[in-house]
Amino acid sequence: MFTNEIKELVKNRGVVVLLILAPIVYPMLYCGLYWNETLLDVPIAVVDPSNTSLSRQFIRHMDASPDVAVHCRCASLEEARQQFASGAVHGVLSIPADFSALLQRGEQAHVSVYSDMSSFLYYRSMVLASNYVALEMGQNIQVQRLSQQGIVGAQSDMLARPLPYEGVVLYNSDMGFASFLMPAILILILHQTLFFGIGMAAGADREDKRRLSWNTLFTRSSLYVLLYALLTLYVVGFVPKFFHLPHLGNPLTLLAFAIPFLLATVFFALSCSVFNPNRETQLVLFLFFSLILLFLSGISWPESNLPAFWRIFAQLFPATFGIRAYIKINSMGAGIAQIQTELAGLWIQTAVYFITALLTHRWALQRQTRNCPN
Amino acid sequence: MTFFDAFFSVVARELRRMRSNPVYLTASVGVMLFCFIFFVSIFEDGQPQDMPIAVVDQDQSALSRQFLRNLDAGPLAEIAFRPSDYSEARALMQQGKVYAFVVVQPNFSSDVLANRRPEITFYVNDAYLVAGSLLLKEITYMVELTGGAIKQNVLMAKGMESHRTMGLIQPIQVDMHLIGNPWAHYGVYLLNLLLPGVLQLSILLLTVYALGIELKEKTAPDWLRLSPNSFLTALIGKLFPYTILFTCLSVLTSFVLYRYQQFPLQVSFGWMLLTGFLYVLAYQAVGVLIFGITPVLRDSVTLSALYGLLGFTFAGFTFPIEQLPYPARVFSLFFPIRHYFNLYVPFALNGLSVPHITASFVSLFAFLLLPMVVYARLKKAATQLNFPIK
Questions:
Q1: Residue B233 falls within a domain, yes or no?
Q2: Residue of A203, A224, B290, B322 with fewest CB within 10 Å of its CB?
Q3: Tell me: the pLDDT tens digits for B187-240?
Q4: Which residues of chain A from 116 to 145 reach within 8 Å of chain B, CB to CB?
């Protein structure tokens, strides 16, 4: 019985691609693409009509920061604009001619930074580098000015920087793009390949008029769960370690999440699968939903800022709780206590979709008997 | 039988098919309408406002409360929890209830008065990159602002005039100019490519589906009978209704983005429509190519799905293209959405006139030649139905 079902599954090329090949190849492919996950030394152009030791110091410090690198010096803003237009640089630092004169007179000087907004990662690099250099140089200038006013020692330090602060970036300290996005993508790959794979298999049955019984359905569902238990082990256990993604997760906590996630997803996919008239329709209609699920998970636009309707809508899908739980466990080192909402959600989905899977399949078996009574 | 007779009878047949099966309109119009509503409603605020943060105020002085009030009043952060210590705050972060938290030490206020420079520590969660980065910027700014106010008070108490204090409080100010997207609107950044991205999925899948279903259901002879002399006419006639449909959806996308949402657009509306039209044609051509490679519907649908999803990565808007490994950068040229990005960003977003406009347009045109590669094979498959139909 079991080997029969395996043979049936392997015969179905589309299902093999979706259920076996895609979850093996896609994680590797995406991890390879996002391998250089941290933007370093984003090229910028510099316009410095002031050309004084202070302005040159500012430029040197910008260049020395890890975020940006001076690619070229331009005589005018127009020249810098051409560099930007040709794609050679993603930002421009412009220091006005009166930069040093203002600083020497004890007044406030301005520098202008122009940032490419085609990717937010450029913008972040510009902001980080320029604010850091302006503050650091500014403090030295402040100390000098204060001593000219006769303020020295502890009070000078205090006035230069009354509130020292430390911003600690937790859970993704390199601010890497893959470390942020890949955990969500991995769970989404499992969810979507199961959904479309199970859908395609059910569509194939209906197309080929294969007679189904509770027995075959049960065997096949167990087969999906077993297959995906292995694939989950690979995607969740092997891929993050191999590709240096976050993997803080405690194996037992991961197990406590993976079991209801897999069950909920399989039952959800089974419940929907009986409506597929053929192999392809589900993929044609719902492929775009992969993107919707990614945004519903709250990994990109924060969950707290999703409109209430979408927050509730999101609860229908195992991917939502799955992605949230996995990121908390694996990126943030959460234990069972911190993911109770997600675990409860997944177990409720498991129960509900188990019942709907039974109901829809009873209906499908009745439809089968009605259509061909023999 | 003239070209036009054959062409229009194929078009008329295709329109009947599109009406008789709801898949066609649902997978195009339905999908795009859903995405318009979904994404427009999500990115309405431009930047996520009032994200929940926690504060551990161990000082409870007038000064610490002033600082926290400033933070709360700022646009991006809202104090949602006031846990009593660090570990409680950290647990809130792990539960995903807050995206950042700030710790104000005891004696904060008295340390300030005694010139002891108390340190403010804050923690942001960059597992959520957007929330984390924005809050890092926001909290840093608020600490600087509060520090600036302390400085100003001390200096004015020393008798310095207020306009002279600015040079002491902040000698160098950075003016940020965000090219093309001055308010760092997240929708401007994402939707200008996400929506065309969804459109390309729909074009690829439906092109392949419309062609493949004829072979799978063995209706191809009916189709080809209407244009007995020319397979090319039959093919163009079949694809033509979808060209119109997807061009309309592309126009609607531009309308939603630049008229309804009023996103910045430095070129004329007509320019975007022309680019959108070329984009639709290029993806239809890729769809024909994919189906020609594997004229079995389920395989070509799966292949277009895998190819279409990669388009979001290879467009290069979430993650800059030059960060990808070299082979991937070359591979990205085989995605029309990459060329669309190259046309949209410099012209429509940044308003620049640049030399490589021709290259991008020529590349989009070049996609139209791709079906020639598989034309013979496709013709044979359609006329002889010699491929497995499942």
A1: yes
A2: B322
A3: 888 898 999 999 999 999 999 999 999 888 888 888 888 888 888 998 999 999
A4: 116-124, 126-127, 130-131, 134-135, 137-138, 141-142, 145
Residue A277 domain-assigned (yes or no): yes
Chain A residues within 8 A of B44 when measuring between CB atoms: 307
Q: Select from A106, A110, A167 the Cβ nearest to the Cβ of B122.
A: A167
Chain B, residues 313-372, CB within 8 A of chain A, namely: 313, 316-320, 323-325, 328, 341, 345-346, 349-350, 352-356
In a domain, A114, yes or no: yes
Q: Which domain holds residue A115?
A: 42-160
CA A98, CA B202: separation in Å to the nearest integer? 55
Q: What share of chain A is helix, strand, coil (3-state, %, to 5)?
A: 65, 10, 25
**For chain A, what is the domain count?**
2
pTM of the model: 0.89
Residues 6+ apart with CB under 8 A from B306: A22
pLDDT, tens digit, for every residue of A137-147? 888 888 888 77
Together in a domain, A28 and A49: no
Can you tell me the ipTM of this complex? Answer: 0.90
Range of the domain at B272: 3-43+185-384
- The number of distinct structural domains making up chain B is 2
Cα-flanking dihedrals φ and ψ of residue A31, to 5°?
-65, -40
From the CA of B127, how many Å to the nearest CA of chain A?
Answer: 5
A324/B96 touch (CB, cutoff 8 Å), yes or no: yes
B146 near A CB under 8 A? yes
pLDDT tens per residue across span B62-103 = 888 888 888 898 888 999 999 998 999 998 998 889 999 999
The answer to whether residues A192 and A301 belong to one domain is yes
Residue B176 lies in a domain: no
Question: Is there a domain that residue B179 lies in?
Answer: no
Could you give the CA distance from residue B111 to residue B113 in angstroms, rounded to a whole number? Answer: 5
Query: Which among A292, A302, A327 is the nearest to B48, CB-wise?
Result: A302
Q: Are residues B22 and B67 in the same domain?
A: no
Residue of A nearest to B332 (CA): A33
Residue B354 scores a pLDDT above 70: no
**Partner-chain contact A177 B144, CB within 8 Å:** no
In the prediction, which pLDDT does B37 show?
94
Cβ under 8 Å to A: B residues 218-277: none
- Taking 70 as the pLDDT cut, the residues of chain A under it are 1, 173, 373-374
Question: Do A19 and A111 share a domain, yes or no?
Answer: no
Q: Does A349 touch chain B (CB under 8 A)?
A: no
% chain B with pLDDT above 70: 98
Q: Any long-range contacts for A227-233 (C-beta under 8 Å, 24+ apart)?
A: A227/A19, A227/A20, A228/A190, A228/A194, A228/A262, A228/A265, A228/A266, A229/A258, A229/A262, A231/A20, A231/A23, A231/A24, A231/A190, A232/A190, A232/A258, A232/A262
Q: Which residues of B touch A162 (CB under 8 A)?
A: 112, 117, 147, 150-151, 154
- Give the pLDDT confidence score for residue A374 in this predicted structure: 56
Do residues A300 and A204 both lie within one domain? yes
